[in-house]
Amino acid sequence: MAQYAFYPGCTLHSTGVEFGASTDRVCDALGLELLEIPDWNCCGASSAHSMDHDLFLALPARNLAQAQQVPLEGDDLSLAIPCAACFSRTAAADLALRNDPAFRARMESVLDFQFSGRIRPRNLLDIMANDLSPSQLSNPVSNPLHGLKVVSYYGCLLVRPPAYTDRWDDPEHPKSMDYLLQLMGAQPVPWSYGVDCCGGSLTLNRADVVVHLVDILARAAIEAGADALVTACPMCMANVDGRQKYRGELPIPRPPKPDYDPLPIFYFTELMALAYDLPMLKVLTRHLVDPRPLLKRLEII
Asked: Comparing 291 with 249, which gets the higher pLDDT?
């Protein structure tokens, strides 16, 4: 069984519990053992970077220090991070620890640790797409997602900027999610908005911006012929699942109602769990846009 240090982040235990539950079940089915780092803290996404640059780097740097305590053998180890925002913040801290001697010395003094550089932060999508063979990924499939047309949505943090993300996928035209979903039996359809921003953390204080960006994404996905949108980011999920059709009160006059039905949104691990025929009905009820009618129509559930 392959072992990885694991940083769940705040959302996998709260607003992104669907991501957390499906991650646990899929990794278990694939023989990936996730060893949660001890006494981890919030990485600072999504507000620390706009308030204090040192805090923006120090919070995930502490998690990297804690990850060194995970009992893994070897010199080239991975810290698995499902959340795109957590991965981006941690990758930025890792880059600073490696390339900025003054920052590294300050963190080592404050956090009382010696940075070894043995553990590299990696997104869970990267690990699944690049550490496992096609047969390892497809062998557990017993409920293929035939007939499900999807667009892969990476958002603006998962593969960019390439200086942080180590170019594990193309920063402008990523393909790893399409690759995984094809192995699950789904049909990824091409579109041009896979790395566009959904508004990130503006969903509460600038809902007007978020609903505009989400409307662009939803319309583009529907025009591409997709039944659903697939993401790897809890922040993107919250926005695209929750802000279609201008849900909630807006700080501006309500715009005209869109002329489309809301699009179901999935985490990529949810679709993998469904393809592996793992129990997912309970977490599917947490979606704001109910995906069950679509899945029933396609006889996936």
From this structure: 291
